[in-house]
Request: fold
Amino acid sequence: MSIVKNEASIKNPIIAAVREQLEHRATWLYLLCDEASKKGLTWEDFANPAVRRCGLFQGSGLVKKGGTKSLKGLKRTLFTLPARWVFEIRVGQCTDDAMDLDFHYCPLVKAWQKQGCTDEEISRLCDIAMCGDHAIAESYGCDLLLPQTIARGADTCQLRFRRKK
Reply:
């Protein structure tokens, strides 16, 4: 029996359509990793650096778009209201130097569940996907802390952005 609990509470059809697009991309990640393992590569050996590069690219674009490295700017450019609906995010504190986000749903995890991934695979895939988020945080001069994740059986993913000292 899986420890991963991940059910959406927002049922809006437009939000569902956006989630399906994110699920499709998460399915790509899983299938790429699965095929790579058949060739003798570990998932983390190739996927972590690739996803990190994507996060650095996205992060630099977000900094330029927002014109600031303030986490308030990151909230405004990345964690928009539609994004908050898709991931059912509750925003806690948000200052220039700290931001707390609680995700109550993850379409990536849902995609991996649909593929029949084990809890261990879901956890590994989440770690890979989070390489992008860590790189976005780095683009803002921050660390990203993950006290808990849906992929490891928690009710929420807790993302904690903190300015590096």
